[in-house]
Amino acid sequence: MKLKNINPTSTRAWSTLQQHFNETKDVKMQELFKKNPNRKSDYTLKFDDFTLDFSKNRINNQTFNSLIDLAKETGLKEAIEAQFSGEKINVTENRAVLHTALRDKSNTPILVDEKNIKPEVAATLSKIKDFSDNVINGKFKGYTNKPFTDVVNIGIGGSDLGPKMAVEALKFYQNHLKCHFISNVDGDHVYETIKNLNPETTLFVIVSKTFTTQETLTNALTVQKWFLEKATVADIAHNFVAVSTNLEAVKDFGISPNNIFPMWDWVGGRYSLWSAVGLTIALSVGYKNFDDFLTGANQMDVHFKNTSFDKNLPVVLALISIWYNNFFNSETEVLLPYTQYLELLPMYLQQTIMESNGKSVDRNGDAINYQTGTIVWGSTGTNAQHAFMQLVHQGTKLIPADFIGFLEPLHGDSNHHAKLMANLYGQTEALYKGKTKGEVNIELKLADKTHDIEKLLPFKTFAGNKPSNTLLIQKLTPNALGRLIALYEHKTFVQGVIWNIYSFDQFGVELGKELAKNYLKC
């Protein structure tokens, strides 16, 4: 079963939404809250310890129901079933899209070309467990028989961003191994990373499906040359491992066949951290935590697959995003995690969302005359408040925001955490409420600045009515991180289905690489 090819603008739901938008585009959220004292609870969803408050959006029941109708009319239910069952929905590359299978621990077979892939996934996870356990406990040592102290992940794109984001996010759970990441073909990046490392106690993880990616192979060869200044070619087998499908090239590099981990063409690069691409995650936090990470993602998969659209967190987030992108013409969304551990999450989701849905041709091969992928950006709170939030509050652009907060701090400092969360709540309230001229007038009078009222009034007034979602999670655990990432993966999928595009190819990234080869010949 292939995805339906339905131009969303041709649907009845889209027409209804367009008319509804024209009638309600100037409605103030402040008025919506006044009319419905229960609005917050009415527009809040719960899944385990995830609580999504989407009440601070320019929507009412009619908006919400019409968006649900749009999802149904564009075949979302059938698309979800096609993805999870292993249909080759990545039509342009004739591939299934089964990163969800990497974290599915059920006994239900998943077939690709009539072969059950579950045993192969289980075997790979077992290999990850054995290897990471042996490195962490010191049984697997470097070429001089010393335990490893450092791990360097060499990859790019999905082979770098995913593991790097997760390792940083789970730093609280990190063991004694120090993890480093080399991705950019910039030589300064490579040498800066390795300059203080000891080749005897450093494990290198090379992640490249083809083992021909220019950036990764160049960096790997540079690191190999540095390593061989102290070691021999035979020693490579002790300190290097690979995640790849090109077995011959990996062996030629000097890596032992026992230390090669598989990749599969039914897993896209930006969705691959759940596979052996996540080996560095397992090395950093231990296999149990990596397994909890996978379990969390699977829990979100089950929620996404089985929950009705009106109570489905990824579906609701996707539909709200479409409402702003396609009707309000909001081109960007800002992501604001209120924990420093998730500093790299906006960058990671930039790849997930923008590489997936940055398409201008629909599934029929026709040029698109409506907006598709949103531009995603952001930073951690409260840093963002002192950087770019001025534009979100008082700028001329409408920028929907996702606030992500955790109810429990990991280090237990309640004083710091109370101030952090107060800022999160304060920002969301300020965005939707704003500040009226009357409130500014009173504020200036109380500050004994009556003589400045006329001058300052227009500058200190906030229009408000700026939309946001608030996602609260009990605690940043490996399980919670897995659920969070899967939530945004599925949000991205829903948008691609409704926009009638293929979300799992990325031909647009190749042209620049091809042209770069011409310059290297000069």
Detailed description of the structure:
- The chain is α/β, with parallel strands linked by helices and about 525 residues long.
- It has two domains: about 240 residues, Glucose-6-phosphate isomerase like protein, domain 1 (Rossmann fold); about 170 residues, 3-Layer(aba) Sandwich (Rossmann fold).
- About 45% of the residues lie in helices and about 10% in strands.
- It has 21 helices and 13 strands.
- The strands form three sheets. It has a six-stranded mixed β-sheet, with helices on both faces.
- Helix 15 links the parallel strand 10 and strand 11.
- Helix 1 runs antiparallel to helix 4, helix 7 runs parallel beside helix 12 and helix 18 packs across helix 19.
- The chain is globular, with a radius of gyration of 25 Å.
- The two termini are about 50 Å apart.
Any key phrases for this structure?
single chain; 522 residues; alpha/beta; Rossmann fold; 2 domains; six-stranded mixed β-sheet; five-stranded parallel β-sheet; 11% strand; globular
Topology:
Blueprint: H1 12-24, H2 29-35, H3 39-42, E1 44-47, E2 50-53, H4 61-73, H5 76-84, E3 111-112, E4 115-116, H6 118-136, E5 150-154, H7 161-169, E6 178-182, H8 187-194, E7 202-207, H9 214-227, H10 236-239, E8 240-243, H11 247-253, E9 260-261, H12 279-285, H13 287-306, H14 313-326, E10 332-337, H15 345-357, E11 375-378, H16 389-394, E12 401-406, H17 414-433, H18 437-446, H19 453-460, E13 468-473, H20 478-498, H21 510-521
Parallel strand pairs: 5-6, 5-7, 7-8, 8-9, 10-11, 10-12, 12-13
Antiparallel strand pairs: 1-2, 2-13, 3-4
